[in-house]
Every structure is written in C-alpha cells, then in structure tokens.
Amino acid sequence: MCSKISHGGHTAALSFVTTIPYIRNRKIAKPSNMPSLTDRFKSLQITRRILYPLIGMLSYPGLMWVNRLKISGTENLENLPRGNVLFVSNHQTYFADVITFLHIFSAVKWGKRNRLGIPYYLLNPFIRVYYVAAEETMRGSWISRLFTKAGALTVKRTWNPASREVRRGLDASDTRKITRALQDNWIITFPQGTTKPFAPGRKGTAYIIRQNRPVVVPVVIRGFWRAFNKKGLKFKKRGTALSVAFKAPLQLDYDAPAEVILEKVMDAIEQSKKYMMVGAHHNVPTPA
Predict the structure, then answer these.
(1) Contacting residues for 58 by C-beta, under 8 A, at least 6 apart
(2) What is the count of structural domains for the chain?
(3) Which residues make beta-bridge pairs with 166?
(4) Model's pTM, two decimal places?
(5) Which DSSP state fits 196?
(6) CA-to-CA distance for 130 and 153, rounded, in angstroms?
(7) Which end of the chain, C or N, has fewer beta carbons within 10 A?
(8) Would 59 be classed as within a structural domain?
(9) Rounded CA gap, 34 and 254, in Å?
(10) Is there a domain that residue 24 lies in?
C-alpha cells in the first residue's frame, strides 16, 4: 500500500506504520499511589485479624457472663461453601447482633457446635464475612467507623428520614459491591433494614438472591433488644436470655418473582404477618 504513495508521503506513512507495534506493546503504567485489589484485600484481612480479637474480648463477657447466650443450629454451618453464602436475619440492635455472629462463626471454625466456651477461637477468628449496613449509620460516630473496618458493606437507605427521599430497591453500585463480596465470602444481611420488629422486608434482598443464587441461611435472634440499647453497645437489662438459631438453608426457586422470594425469607426469619399474629413480639412461638 505504501508503494503507491508518492515519495514525499512514503516517509510519513512508513513512520506511522512502524509506530503501531510500539503503541500496541507499550504498557500503561498504573499510578504508583493506587493499591491493587489484592493489596486492599490483604490490608483488610490484617485489619480484621487485629479488630476481631479486640472486639471479641470486649464483647464476650456481655454475651456469656452478664447475659446468657443460647446458640442452636450451627450444624447447618459446618458444610457450607467458602463463598456465595447469604445469612438473612431479623434485626434488634445495630452492632450486638453482628458481633454475636462473628463469635459464632469463629467458634464453628474451631469445631465447636452450639456453644462458644472459652474464646480461644479469637486467636484465629473467621474473617471471610461481611455484613450489610446503612451508610448513614456507619458514618454516625468513631465507633461505627471502626466497625466499618471490620467488614461492613455500606448501602444507601431506600428511605432517608432526613431528606424524606424514597428510592426503589438498591443502588446499582451497592448491588455490585455485594455481588463482588459474595464471590468468596459469607454475607450477613437484615432484610427489614431496621430494628423495628415485623417491619416489611426490602425487595433489595430478593434481587440479590435472584441475581447471585447464593445459599441462603435464615437466622432468628431473640432477647438482644431487651439486653442492649439500640446500638447494642450498652447494657439495658442484665441477666437476659439471648438466643441465636440458625435454620437449614432455604430451598428456593431463584427464578421466582422477587415478592415470592422475599415472602419465603420473611417467613423463615419469623417476621412475616402470620408470626406477628401468634404471640408477643421478639418472642414468637413457631406455629404448628
């Protein structure tokens, strides 16, 4: 092709052609101040290995000595896959619920079943876990920002009382964040998005389930609202019976409408209307 070009243009064409391989083979350098995903993951792991034992030692007496924690169903955790596991639970405090889950997951990692016992499991805790929390809540104080470092996946509220703004479903960036985390981790989420008992579930949970098809493990907690304040960091009533019950993974039709999936989830965590009608809130007997 260059042979048909006049002598004056031949040099320019040749120069352009010989530059192409240089452009193709040239590697674009990453900014030196931008850490890779691997570096950020390693940094998070190190942070958790420091925070989990610290949080665990501070919270253990409140769960086991000041109050009385009863655990059931941890046999349902023993053969779960390494990733793509979603725990759905009712919600009673901002932090005490999640802290208790971290204790239990670490105890199960060390071979304990339905008990914590002596917390030597904090020497090597289970750290491949995240929990979903409202962005506004996790920016509220230095302690909440500290808990963010322990594995919070912050999402925007569908209802913001300050701005009175209503949004439909999860933000797209929040969905991607949860999807990435699910690939190699366990995630704890609270479908109601509030500590108010029997509040309706949010469809965002159902959309996440439909999209990622995770193993969904229902959890029912009781007594935390009575033992702790709303944040779950101060005692309200000592000597309270606390319970955490892990149920068998749900059998779901992942192609079902979001409303159908959400209804099954809300039944499993005992926060649907039929549970509201059969007993006092937070202490509901299972219907026959």
Answers:
(1) none
(2) 1
(3) 159
(4) 0.80
(5) S
(6) 6
(7) C
(8) yes
(9) 38
(10) no
CA 103 to CA 126: how far, in whole Å?
Answer: 8
Instruction: Please say whether the beta carbons of 181 and 153 come within 8 A.
Output: yes
Question: Is residue 90 within 8 Å of 190, Cβ to Cβ?
Answer: yes
Instruction: Return per-residue pLDDT of the chain as tens, 288 residues.
Output: 444 434 444 444 434 334 434 434 444 444 445 555 445 555 678 889 999 999 999 999 999 999 999 999 999 999 999 999 999 999 999 999 999 999 999 999 999 999 999 999 999 999 999 999 988 878 777 888 888 888 899 898 654 444 444 444 567 788 899 999 999 999 999 999 999 999 999 999 999 999 999 999 999 999 999 999 999 999 999 999 999 999 999 999 999 999 999 999 999 999 999 898 775 544 544 443
- Provide the 10 A C-beta neighbour count for residue 285: 10
- Alpha-carbon span 246 to 74, nearest angstrom: 6
* Both tokens assigned to 260: 């159908």
**54: in domain:** yes
Q: For residue 149, what is the domain's CATH number?
A: 3.40.1130.10
Widest pairwise Cα distance in the chain: 95
**Residue 263 one-letter amino acid:** E
Residue whose token pair is 């030196």: 32
Q: Which domain holds residue 91?
A: 38-276
**Chain length of the chain:** 288
Whether 3 is covered by a domain: the verdict is: no
Distance CA 139, CA 244 (A): 27
